[in-house]
Every structure is written in structure tokens, then in C-alpha cells.
Specification:
It is found in: Cell membrane; Bacterial flagellum basal body. By secondary structure, this protein is α+β, with helices and mostly antiparallel strands. The chain is built from 3 helices and 4 strands. It is elongated.
Length: about 120
């Protein structure tokens, strides 16, 4: 079984490294290119992006009583932003939009989780 617990942190670290390198490096030092290339290998790693509309805890008997047409009230207000998760880690919040008859999500807020402290662990 694959351990994906740090995959979201790695993706965040790669994005932050490229952003920080582009912002903080002086032209001609080569540091920005070096840092960006170092994390570029992460770009092709597949991750699971999911959007959580809401959640509720139910007893098994309540779930067994559900039938077609039943409504389950979720623990979130209709006006609240939805959670955008990458591999189960909250990375942003957004709102539902429709694009050509399909659902989409507009990112309204990106969650900052201090990527500077993220450690990348190598496994043999």
C-alpha cells in the first residue's frame, strides 16, 4: 500500500518554492532556476482533489431508514464556502459555479499552512 500522507504537503511545497524563488531571487544568480528545477519532478505526481459540500454524523439505523427522496441536512450553511481538499488536506475554500452545464468550483480563499516548515522525506 502506498503512503500518500505527505503528497499534499509536497505539492504545496513545490508551488511555494517556485513562487518564492521567482519573487525573492535576484536576476542572474541562477537560484530561481535551480530551485524551480529541483521541485519540477513533483509536477507529474497525481493527487486527488475533492470538494466537501458538508458532512453530518448519523446512526446506522438513520442511514438504513433513508429512501428515495429523503433529505439529509448537512452541517453547513448554504452561504458558507466549500472546502477544497487535496489528498484529504484542506488547501482552499471556494464556491460552486456551473460551466456549460457542469459543476465547477471558483477558488475564493487559499489556505496558507506555512510551507517553509515542510520537510520532504526520502524513502528508499
Amino acid at each position: 500500500m502506498t503512503d500518500m500522507t505527505q503528497a499534499a504537503g509536497l505539492a504545496d511545497a513545490a508551488k511555494a518554492a517556485e513562487t518564492n524563488a521567482a519573487i525573492s531571487c535576484q536576476p542572474g544568480t541562477g537560484f530561481a532556476d535551480e530551485t524551480a528545477n529541483h521541485y519540477r519532478f513533483l509536477a507529474d505526481i497525481p493527487v486527488r482533489l475533492s470538494v466537501e459540500v458538508g458532512a453530518v454524523s448519523l446512526k446506522l439505523s438513520e442511514i438504513m431508514d433513508l429512501e428515495e427522496g429523503s433529505v439529509v441536512e448537512l452541517g453547513r450553511q448554504a452561504t458558507d464556502l466549500l472546502d477544497i481538499n487535496v489528498n484529504g488536506t484542506l488547501v482552499a475554500r471556494g464556491e460552486v459555479v456551473t460551466i456549460d452545464g457542469r459543476f465547477g468550483i471558483r477558488v475564493a480563499e487559499v489556505i496558507s499552512n506555512q510551507v517553509a516548515g515542510t520537510k520532504v522525506e526520502r524513502r528508499a
